[in-house]
């Protein structure tokens, strides 16, 4: 009976959307797209979601282009060939966009498109990650072969909800070709990084080294706030005094790259050590060091119980792991070197080194510093990253792990000596420490200048590199050249552009932001800039450009962002640092007074109420569907959490809003914002008014801010996908299952999800089938929501495996299993086909009714066959905290799921760590082996 039922399954393979569309006439698809495709929905699909066509098909320079600019396709590209390119991208690869396969000497195969090639190396753009450039030395290459695969992925249409979405996308793509390049596309963005001049970088160094603490320079009055040295009272209170003394004795030796000059270099070694020690005694005497008098061992504080030391040092493995994630995501690695799995710095050329922190801080000191760095360093160069106490503690745990040199175990004692403290105060003045570290002694104001900067001889004194009774900076040759260039041409007055450049370089804003071709995230650091929503593309993870930012943002909003840590991008994991109001107020003034746009001609407002009504329509799903992507009054859209519409008018200046809306790529080449008014023409001519009139209507509507009326389409009703006379299937992401989940709803109100990634029954439930809104509205990044109740989940990992050496389960695909599709019976119920080594499996489910209880249940039949000899395999029927055998062949899992095993097989309860498994051993040969299970719950 069972064999006959399995054989009744029809040999109709389940087809994907791509496979179905390929069989259609492309001419008819083009016709239907032009007639029935929604161009606005198509624009949104083109720019967002899994497909993100705009990421590759963007109007950038020819050399950087990785896919054709669709607005510049020639007449030889027919509408039908565009259909073919979407559905079968590798069938015809356009010249100039070919890919290659590189076989390396160690056996690796690397696929990508050639960016550059010479006798020494080949640079490829990875086919897996188009943002990644891979450099391969010619000596490491065995062969380079043309690839038959396109950079454009196969099965792209499968990321769409249905045929209508394909028609929407095709309609927009055809429109791109038809209307030609936009104004923004003609301004090709080459993304060349411009370096600041030597003179400007020299001024940045003069400011960083605080040369004006000793030398006169009238222009310093117009500079951004001068460099303030660290607050030594804070340092003396919180830091290890022994390490502080070593640092003062030779700063560069203890922390290479520090801006602290060597002030005692002219002394012999014993006197230098004694002098540094005396200065620290003075500082700790006025600061009240927390640990003075205690024995110090590395960053441990003697006198504490071992358990307390253990906690203080952060030997909390989970905390250190959380700290590692924070360090590499919130923005620390924008300035500092990333670290490897052993927490060892991996130096990059433009990094600010941290070095080994374990001798300098204990866990409490570093936590206090990270929570409020401006208390220790008021200059703001170390910004406040808005860390909570738990975050600062976890980050400290990570940074204070033992270095590659091993944990410091040296011990010494520290007790304040009043005599040495008095001597230290005298030396503090004598060595002119008071020039930079103000507020420590009262004599600082009486110190005289050591001459004007413009009169200095670079071959003498501080810049000479020779030891003497002056600060010794140990600058490299390049820095010396930059300072000398600045000294030769010190301006009497800085231009606004110079002030902005100097300020951005001083605070290293250019590590994250780009302005006028200066700065921006480098390729080496790019992957550390992350987002919580991939639909947003590059805008979701890379900080915005500062080019023209003063013409973009209202002053109050800019001040709130730079001073009051206001944010509108919660999806961006990298945080906006806070540098302190005194340090950035001038920058706000400079942006606001100097950034300008070209004149803007606004549309005339005759009937305000009528125009606001039109703006309401445009924002909703009957217009341009802004709410499909933008947050509205803190409520996120299903597609993505793009910036809140109800904050637009508060944030943006009207002329910038106008110009951006009319040509988004001009301001942001990588934007996911579609061009709804390309070349000044409305993409929806059926909406009242020309382009400027529609933009004005939207602006007038947005002026109501939080009080703006809710557009249509924001409140979305749930979708119910239900089975009637036949089974219904949905291949999408399900909770705790990857994108290869195949859900099946049966007419008798039982449902299941088969995980085709790991070849397992993943979950079952009763009642209604599913709400697919999460993936249909979320452009593929959401999950299907099972409806109904009594949901049961099954363990991860394949159910059929080797009984001796099973696969160690992770989130990936088991290496010896292969999914082979499915077939449908006359009631559209699927039979899943897969293989394990040489064993083929046919996995078939039917919904049945238990007549004694009038309750539905699932009967599952597995048909197995070996292609070569007999194989011993193990089938995991269930896993749970408790499994009990109630009678022959019947098992109760966690007191809720009953599983019946057919009489031909024996189930065995196996104890595993923290769980029990119900396993069924199977002998499979070239004949047919069948196993039948029934699930009741």
Automatic annotation (TrEMBL):
Keywords: Heme, Iron, Metal-binding. The lineage of its organism: Bacteria, Pseudomonadati, Planctomycetota, Planctomycetia, Pirellulales. Residues 37-171, 197-287, 318-403, 478-595 form the Cytochrome c domain. PROSITE patterns: CYTC. Gene3D superfamilies: Cytochrome c-like domain. Signal peptide: none annotated. This is C-type cytochrome. It comes from Novipirellula rosea. It comes from the Bacteria.
């Amino acid at each position: 009976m069972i064999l006959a039922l399995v054989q009744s399954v029809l040999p109709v393979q389940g087809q994907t959307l791509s496979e179905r569309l390929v069989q259609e006439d492309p001419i008819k698809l083009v016709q239907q797209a032009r007639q029935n495709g929604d161009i606005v929905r198509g624009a949104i699909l083109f720019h967002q979601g899994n497909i993100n066509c705009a990421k590759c098909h963007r109007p950038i320079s020819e050399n950087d282009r990785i896919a054709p600019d669709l607005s510049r396709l020639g007449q030889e590209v027919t509408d039908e060939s565009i259909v073919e390119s979407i559905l079968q991208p590798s069938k015809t690869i356009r010249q100039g966009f070919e890919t290659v396969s590189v076989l390396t000497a160690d056996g690796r195969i690397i696929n990508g498109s050639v960016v550059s090639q010479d006798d020494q190396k080949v640079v490829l753009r990875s086919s897996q990650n188009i943002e990644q450039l891979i450099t391969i030395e010619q000596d490491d290459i065995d062969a380079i072969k043309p690839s038959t695969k396109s950079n454009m992925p196969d099965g792209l249409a499968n990321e769409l909800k249905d045929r209508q979405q394909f028609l929407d996308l095709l309609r927009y793509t055809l429109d791109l070709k038809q209307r030609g390049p936009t104004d923004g596309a003609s301004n090709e963005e080459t993304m060349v990084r411009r370096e600041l001049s030597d003179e400007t970088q020299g001024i940045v160094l003069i400011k960083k080294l605080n040369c004006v603490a000793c030398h006169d320079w009238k222009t310093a009055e117009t500079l951004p706030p001068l460099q303030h040295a660290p607050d030594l009272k804070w340092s003396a209170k919180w830091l290890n005094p022994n390490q502080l003394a070593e640092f003062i004795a030779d700063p560069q030796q203890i922390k290479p790259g520090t801006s602290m000059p060597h002030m005692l270099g002219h002394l012999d070694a014993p006197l230098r050590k004694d002098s540094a020690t005396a200065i620290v005694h003075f500082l700790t005497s006025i600061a009240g060091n927390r640990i003075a008098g205690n024995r110090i061992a590395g960053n441990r504080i003697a006198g504490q119980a071992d358990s307390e030391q253990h906690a203080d040092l952060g030997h909390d493995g989970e905390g250190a792991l959380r700290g590692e994630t924070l360090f590499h995501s919130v923005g620390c690695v924008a300035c500092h070197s990333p670290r490897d799995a052993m927490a060892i710095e991996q130096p990059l050329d433009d990094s600010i080194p941290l070095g080994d922190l374990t001798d300098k801080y204990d866990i409490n000191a570093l936590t206090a510093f990270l929570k409020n760095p401006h208390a220790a360093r008021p200059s703001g160069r170390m910004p406040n990253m808005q860390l909570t106490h738990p975050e600062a503690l976890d980050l400290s745990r990570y940074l204070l792990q033992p270095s590659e040199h091993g944990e410091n175990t040296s011990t010494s004692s520290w007790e304040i000596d009043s005599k040495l403290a008095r001597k230290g105060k005298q030396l503090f003045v004598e060595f002119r420490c008071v020039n930079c570290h103000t507020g420590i002694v009262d004599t600082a104001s009486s110190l005289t200048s050591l001459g004007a900067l413009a009169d200095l001889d670079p071959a003498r004194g501080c810049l000479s590199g020779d030891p003497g009774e002056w600060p010794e900076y140990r600058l490299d040759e390049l820095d010396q050249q930059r300072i000398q260039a600045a000294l030769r041409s010190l301006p009497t007055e800085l231009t606004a552009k110079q002030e902005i450049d100097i300020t951005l370089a001083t605070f290293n804003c250019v590590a994250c932001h780009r302005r006028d071709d200066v700065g921006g995230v480098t390729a080496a650091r790019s992957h550390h800039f992350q987002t919580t929503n991939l639909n947003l593309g590059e805008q979701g993870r890379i900080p915005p450009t500062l080019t023209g930012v003063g013409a973009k943002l209202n002053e109050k909003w800019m001040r709130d962002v730079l001073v009051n840590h206001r944010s509108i991008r919660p999806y961006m994991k990298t945080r906006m640092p806070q540098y302190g109001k005194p340090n950035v107020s001038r920058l706000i003034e400079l942006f606001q007074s100097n950034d300008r746009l070209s004149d803007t001609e606004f549309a005339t407002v005759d009937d305000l109420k009528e125009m606001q009504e039109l703006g309401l329509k445009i924002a909703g799903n009957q217009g341009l569907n802004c709410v499909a992507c933008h947050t509205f009054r803190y409520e996120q859209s299903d597609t993505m959490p793009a910036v809140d519409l109800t904050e637009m008018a508060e944030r943006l200046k009207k002329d910038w809003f106008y110009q951006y809306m009319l040509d988004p790529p001009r301001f942001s080449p990588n934007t996911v914002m579609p061009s709804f008014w390309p070349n000044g023409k409305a993409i929806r001519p059926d909406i009242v008014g020309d382009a400027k009139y529609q933009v004005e209507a939207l602006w007038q509507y947005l002026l109501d801010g939080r009080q703006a009326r809710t557009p249509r389409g924001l409140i979305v009703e749930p979708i119910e996908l239900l089975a009637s006379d036949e089974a219904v299937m949905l291949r999408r992401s399900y909770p705790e299952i990857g994108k290869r989940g195949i859900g099946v709803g049966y007419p008798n109100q039982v449902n299941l999800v088969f995980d085709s990634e790991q070849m397992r029954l993943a979950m079952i439930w009763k009642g209604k089938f599913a709400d697919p809104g999460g993936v249909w509205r979320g452009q593929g990044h959401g999950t299907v929501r099972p409806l109904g109740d009594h949901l049961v989940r099954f363990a991860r990992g394949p159910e059929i495996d080797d009984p001796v050496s099973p696969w160690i389960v992770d989130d990936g695909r088991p290496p010896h299993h292969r999914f082979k599709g499915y077939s449908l019976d006359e009631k559209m119920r699927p039979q899943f086909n897969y293989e394990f080594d040489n064993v083929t499996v046919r996995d078939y489910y039917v919904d049945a009714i238990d007549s004694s209880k009038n309750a539905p249940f699932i009967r599952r039949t597995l048909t197995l066959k070996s292609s070569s000899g007999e194989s011993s395999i193990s089938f995991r029927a269930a896993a749970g905290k408790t499994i009990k055998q109630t009678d022959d062949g019947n098992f109760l899992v966690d007191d809720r799921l009953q599983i019946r095993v057919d009489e031909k097989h024996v189930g065995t309860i196996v104890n595993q760590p923290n769980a029990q498994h119900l396993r069924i051993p199977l002998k499979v040969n070239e004949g047919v082996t069948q196993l039948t299970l029934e699930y009741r719950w």
